[in-house]
Amino acid sequence: MNCGIEVLKRLNELLDQDLKEVIDNCEQKVDEHGLNMLVMFEELNQVLPCQAVASLHLIKNTPYIAFIGFDHKGHYVLVEDIQKKVKLFDPAKGYITMTKLHFYMIWSKKAIIFML
Question: In b/e form, how buried is each residue of 32-67, taking b as 16+ CB within 10 angstroms?
Answer without folding.
Answer: eebbebebbbbbbbeebebebeeeeebeeebbbbbb
